[in-house]
Write a structure and sequence with these properties.
rod-shaped; single chain; alpha+beta; 5 helices; 168 residues
Length: 168
């Protein structure tokens, strides 16, 4: 059934509208006008609110897309196998110095001979050059009376910093 516009046009004809307005008294016209004005103001405020919400949503989306994704760093201790490999390489490089991979994931560098001080200190500094992927921490350092017959002793521990993407 098609929509017939003829009755609508007749209902809102200027002659009929003029008669309807003439039949209203002044106070009724003021109340109706005030209601229409309030509805118009509410409509304008709603349009501004929707426009502001859409603008805020677009600005937030742009800010999220412009925010860089920063990696998360985690420190993992050096594994026993890697520690043993470093110890073997260091022992091969400095055969006169005692180098031991400890059970506590630490590398112990010792010498009983005071004449080997420069080799001992070089071996200690060479660890960082030999394995730069690890962050080395000097846990113990003793020169002189280090308990027992050990004249020079240093213990270092290594940690590897691993970077990964954050979990969302």
């Amino acid at each position: 059934m098609p929509l017939d516009a003829k009755p609508l046009i007749q209902a809102f004809s200027p002659r009929l509208m003029a008669r309807a307005l003439a039949s209203l008294d002044k106070s009724t016209a003021i109340v109706i006008s005030a209601c229409w004005l309030a509805a118009l103001v509410t409509l304008i405020l709603a349009v501004f609110a929707v426009h502001g919400a859409v603008s805020s949503k677009n600005a937030a989306a742009e800010a999220i897309s412009a925010e860089p994704v920063l990696p998360v760093s985690t420190n993992t201790p050096i594994g026993p196998r890697e520690l043993q490999l470093i110890s073997d390489r260091l022992q091969h490089q400095f055969p006169d110095i005692k180098i031991e991979a400890g059970a506590a994931q630490a590398l112990s560098i010792k010498s009983d001979d005071g004449a080997k001080f420069h080799q001992w200190i070089t071996a200690l500094s060479y660890i960082d050059t030999m394995a730069p992927q690890f962050h080395w921490t000097l846990r113990d350092f003793c020169v002189g009376a280090c308990g027992g017959q050990t004249l020079m002793k240093a213990t270092v521990t290594g940690q590897k910093m691993v970077f990964s993407l954050p979990q969302h």
